[in-house]
Structures
1.
Amino acid sequence: AAATVAKVDYTVEYLTHLENFAEHRFPNDRYDDQHEEAREYIMKAFEKHGLRTQVQKFNTSVNTDIIGINPEDKIVEGQNIIAIAEATSNKPEAVIVVGADYDTNGVDNPLFNNGAGVAVLLETVRLFMYNVRWSQAFRQNFTTVFVAFDLNTREHEGSAGKPGSYHFVNEWLWTFLNRSKVNFGGAYIIDSVMNVNQDVRSQIADSKFQQEVGYFLL
């Protein structure tokens, strides 16, 4: 009998994701509900595709008055949402991180900052899991950690606290790597994907990057 050829799915379906990230997600009374809804949506998307999912809670200082009339820094709880796809084999530098910030700064367009990045992250999860686990078109050599970061305080006006990505790296990832940088293969941070650089050749990935992406899945 002829061997069955695995079907590779390249279809990108991001519009539904964008619809769920079209509003601000910020830790104040006005936007707190949308913030929580975004968390739940991301969690369900990770779990739907069979990923081992967990929440990393942390506290940080955020200026909750986004327009600056009554600036007041408050300690708020953030929640990084982490999903792990374990590799079937391990190689040196065996852990790859793919991440995006899911909160907004309450001012900029919530799709630019950063609903589009989260939509791409979730589609990456869907296509990755389909092509690696379900169709088995590719073999997964690296444990891949998908993470949606909360509270990017570096983009919040007047916020002095550490962002969610800082807490992820220092309080979660370093432990996951058994405190050895040898186990870390790199990170793809999918932010600002709607901000296009129009300079000549700026949108062309160099050969080394293409080779690394290919090696990541082979």
2.
Amino acid sequence: VNHLLQHTLRSICTESQWVYAVLWRILPRNYPPPKILTWEDGFCDFAACVKSFKQSSSGDSEAASAEPLQPELFFKMSHEVYSYGEGLMGKVASDSSHKWIFRDPADQDSSLVSPWHGSLDPHPRTWEAQFKAGIQTIAIVAVQEGLLQLGSLDKVLEDLNLVILLQRKFTYLQTIPGVFAPHPNTLNHSIHQAAMIAGSSGRKIPERPPLSKSLNTGHSSPGVVPHLHPSMSSLHALLSKLPSVSDNALVPPP
């Protein structure tokens, strides 16, 4: 279960034109603003980036002096933090909307323009380096736990079917216990509230359960029994329930 999110991000890229997928998580969820968007997990097909970059840069002296998308540049995004409701990323997350951004703004299809295409909010500073490294399209889609960011080496037109399918996929993931580890502040707040209620009623306050480290997110989660690891068959069973990104059938929003 700890790796189900990583498998989901990988499947988004293997089933479509996207070469990377990143989930930005809203933290904390159970507190009033200010909230932030932080890196939760990401996947990038670097081999595809190198192959496509070599093909596109052959005969182009300007492109030949640049480099394809490198791991250092991709994971540099993990240091970014965005304010919820502010800027390009924060507004898309708070409005539960989506936005397609192209390397060349003049190359956009006017018939497929989302409401945020007219926004004057600047894109994050790491995106310019990605565009130079061959990324042509970046899409951001608000999902259940935060914001999904996708990058492609091709021009990918805005697709409302894809937006709905991604939102359904992450809504389903959110229902699986253990995929998204609780934030430490949220956990401490819940334990504190339970202790206050128990103390006021005269009941014995239970001891705090041990915390174990999540392999996927780095956040602490309530005590996990070590021998309860899912088998590969159970992992494939969970993945099979996720809506396929390659499915183009229009489905009503949940």
3.
Amino acid sequence: ECYVQNTAREYAKIYAAEAEPLEGFGEVPEIIPIFLVHRPANNIPYATVEEELVGEFVKYSVRDGKEVNFLRRDSEAGQKCCTFQHWVYEKTSGSLLVTDLQGVGMKLTDVGIATLAKGYKGFKGNCSISFIEQFRALHQCNKYCEMLGLKSLRTTHQKQRKATSMKSKNLPNSSTIKKTVPKKAREPRDFISSEH
């Protein structure tokens, strides 16, 4: 829990350093730190502590990967959280996504991380890879994405879908194709697939 939140916090600091100097961007989301405390005399020897957030607690994005809560996406904090997700996705070449953004105003806590490949930069993540796929499909850029010069994911995703559907339309019926596979290719192999 500490590692997830503090890793996301480091990304948020770099994001803030790029976004805050931009004219008109304003305040940026901050992921508050979380600390592990050892209490040897206690029945439960380990606990996490963090700053208490006072005010209306809002979920800007949720663990099911569906970008920003539709009731909150028009808020400034919601849009900036969405932009932060897009920024991290672009900075990591689609390999990592900070998700489950929630908190009070611009102060966020209890975030999640999804990674495209297990062990990306030594980080396992705590959310499914499907969150990355869903984010790429559902994300809608806003003015903050534009201010940071982030590339539209929708256009890329639509082009990929269109190219895939065009290929399948141009292929002859699979029952008329005789498939021959070299002997070596039939041997089972361990491999990692990635989507690009």
4.
Amino acid sequence: MSSPVLVCALRGIDAFRALGAALKGWTQGRDRLSTGDSLPQALMALTPEVTFRQAILFFTEADLVTGKAHFCCLYCLTQICFSPVVGESWRCRAESLFSFLQAGAQVLRTVLLIKPGVWSRGLPRILRDLHLQNFSVVGMKHLELGAAAAAALLPCEVQQDPAALEAHCTYLTSGTALVLCLQRPNAVKKLMDLLGPEDPQLAQALDPCLWRAQYGTSAVQNGFYGSRSYAMAVRDVKLFFPEGLCCAQCQPVQEQEV
């Protein structure tokens, strides 16, 4: 090649889709600025298999070592080739990223709270659907939420709206809720995909099979709370199951919080 180029190994949640969207926007912006070849071109690996082959080609074991950060190192070489090295969870111990890729998806935990009035009539079907989606239930308890605990589960935009906050908290504290700790690979995102949007009407328009479309009746009484991110899942497990869980496949909570 006639000019130097850069190779990056990137790691993140839903890396292929996210990087593809970012590069699409970057390419469109580049095309508006110039019709020539003066600006850099970008390529990315499209599958995990291609990513693995390219990572072996351009990097050594020593180059791709994760630490306590959420990303792997960047490395300058001679070709622009954005290769998203994907993994569903990061580990706080130093580890070969090649070994991580070969090990496959890591088992994660997440929390599902079935809101008052829903679990008492829909629990058998919900448990069956969880089983069909390969979730394991590793913790379960019913409880009555206090106002502070209910408010902590709500999105920031709801917490900043006094009327919406009061409506949500009134509903969440109106009866007994059932909290489940669930476990499977990619548990957090998979649960969010099953629940659908917070508003049941929007969920119904997207897909009638989404859980909030089936069980929810309004944006307040939408049937479920699910941990919206990995960090929130770690927080929720610690909040609702401080006594521990009946399974030890995942990292201990103290290790996940590092």
